[in-house]
Amino acid sequence: MSVTRRDFLRAGGGAALSGLIGVPGPATAAGAPRSRVVLVRDRHVVGGDGAVDGARLARMLDDAVCALLEVPTPEEGWRRLVRADDVVGVKSNVWRRLHTPPELEAALVRRVTGAGVGAADVAVDDRGVREHPVFRRSTALVNVRPGRVHHWSGLGTCLKNYIMFVPRPAEYHANACEPLGAIWHLPEVEGKTRLNVLVMLTPLFAGSGPHAFSSEYTWPYGGLLVGTDPVAVDATGARIIEARRAEHFGEPRPISPPLTHIRAAEVTYGLGTADPGRIDLIRLGTVEGALV
Amino acid sequence: MRPGVVMLLAAVVVAAACARREAPPAPDLLEAVEARIPPVVEGWTADPERDARWDAETIYSYIDGHAEVYLAYGMRGCVSRTYLGPGGEGPAVVDVFRLASSADAWGVFRHDAEGQPVEVGQAARLRPGWLTAWQGPCAISVTADGEGVTDDVLVALGRAAAEAVGVSGPPPEVVASLPAAGLEVDSVRFVRHPLLLNAHLYLADEDLLGLAGDAAAAVARYRRPAGEAWLVVVEYPGEERAATAVARVLTDYLPEAEGGRPAAVEGGRWSAVDRRGERLALVVDAPSSEEAAGLLAEALRGGAR
Q1: CB-based contact B60:B99 (threshold 8 Å)
Q2: DSSP A151
């Protein structure tokens, strides 16, 4: 029998039901490796008119990479992330209502080419990755997408962002998209991801229905979550969004449907850790309103 | 009995009593809806270039993984019409989903019960930029997809869509059979899929209750003087399924329970499961053994025939 409600209640009381992640298990037992996640924020990165300050955003990315890899310059950081002979696919997200800012895509491409990758060997794409010639011959991936609630998986996450690498995404929808972690073991993807960026500039923290977006349910968090462990990045993003939900609604509002895909990515597919006790969270920039 | 409970029960009874026979499958109800939704509603004009119709296969290309919620309620199709305001405001998108039954449409409508009630169709809720409504076997969604879509516009478009559906239907019988005392009306949901149950009351990753898409389950929260509890009531297509589900709950969730009696669970709470014929009742996290047993008995009596 797999995990039940009672397992979470044993693990940490009612609060542990939030997001249903972080249940102690074999993958998070003592001795399991720790993960680093950088949360970088700038309250001014998104203007009152919704416009993104590209220069600030690029600096946030640079600061995050330096802190993540403990290097003095972003150039050095990116030389550690990619090699000059890599072919790099930047897997982005084009969902019309909350897409990856083009300024961030451009900043990622600049840093990748700055590390020596040829201009013809780096590309940004989302829904066309299966046919895109750069992605088809890629040796490295950079995974970037906005964090938001999702009608079926609970959250749109870095883990979920790779669903466009499969021909029939609906086949991964079972049990709130629990099998998404399996995609990360496919030949097209396995072992290639050098960096995960969960964009938390204006995350969507609530909203349901077929189009699932209302600006009323976004807020100017002004952040990026950056890490090499997609599970840790997503789990941290989930905690932020869930905290915002509680703040907004004035009571606990666990993300729904439950985040089985994050937990499975940790426990079943071995892609990282969701346990906050095993995540070293490095905070940069704006402190007020961090929620974690 | 609390006024809210009286209102819910009254609404359910009235809706059931006044429901006309659900529209026959042929001619196609959605085809009729497409023809009847007005091209102009209070100055907002439909853009025919954006009219669309989706079925169970193509719906993914319209709303991605969100489609799974509607498919879990037996969605047969969706028609979509996009309106623009007289000064170019909007757009506002009207989606009419045809579900397997009126009960299923009610389930979709109640999946997200945020917002304020408004008078559209048989029932409706309004939130910032989004209105949902229930009308017969259809769930209606009106979404503000641009600036200038006021609440009045959402309501007007919702009413136009509900009138285009033109038929009413009953809410789920299993919902009507819930015990009334202490029922938190806004918590009531109708589900057929374990994931949707988990979305409202997480029980387990596995399909603990064996819903399998053809059982009808109501889930609700209760608040009584002794404290809160959750209740799940499931009507199965046969006694054997109900018996199997009880056995599974006892094995995988309440191994401490014996013979339908409540079992102590984590946090000083109590849970209990039992069945009566095809009807299963599961009380989750009640404040005491007595409360669990009492709510369980009431829930099982609710299905008495």
Answers
A1: no
A2: T
